Each structure stands twice: as structure tokens, then as C-alpha cells.
Model the fold of this input.
Amino acid sequence: MSERAIPPDDITPRDFFTRWVPDAVATDAERRRRLGETRATIVFQIEGNCGGCFTLRIAEGVVRGEVGDEPEPDLRVRVDEATWRRLNSGDLSAPQALLSRKVRLDGDFLLGLKLHLILG
Done:
């Protein structure tokens, strides 16, 4: 996988999930290869002023992002906006966020371990 791409500091969650993530995966052949046969639906619930629910659908090395919830995702990720921004910038690692309960995962925990392949 190429060097970790970092989204702009001022990106909205909507742009991040509907444009930035799908584009980052589409332009990184190694990331697509490592996703392999992964087929999953992941819902991100971002709590805060600019937050909301966003769904990522992963299939055949392609990621599609949508605004809105999915009633029965494979994985649901809950995080507040400030923590989400710290994760995006690299100021906070995913393991630290999980251990400090800043990020909550419901569903397929093994899929949660693959998030770095999708998000960077």
C-alpha cells in the first residue's frame, strides 16, 4: 500500500465518505488488492455538528459511499467528530481510539481490523 493519504483538515464527513474514501481506494491498486474478496457494508455514525450517518459498501475492491444509515450493516462504527478528525490527521491511532473507547464497534470485529485498508 502506498503512503497513507491524509484528507484535508476541513473535509466534511459527507465529502470524506462519499468522495474521498472511494477515490483513495480507486487510485491505490495495492489497497484494492488487499481488500481482495471483501464484501461488506459499514455504517459510520459521526456525532457532532457536521456529523451524520454514512454507509460504505465494499465489493470486488471497490468502495461506494452513501449518505444515510443501513439497518443491518456488517459493522457499525460510532465516533464523535473531534475523534474522527484526529484519526484522519494521524494524531490518534485506531488502537488508541478503541482502547480509550473513543471509537465503538458493533458487528464484525474482524472487519473492523480491515478498516485501515479502506480508510488509509
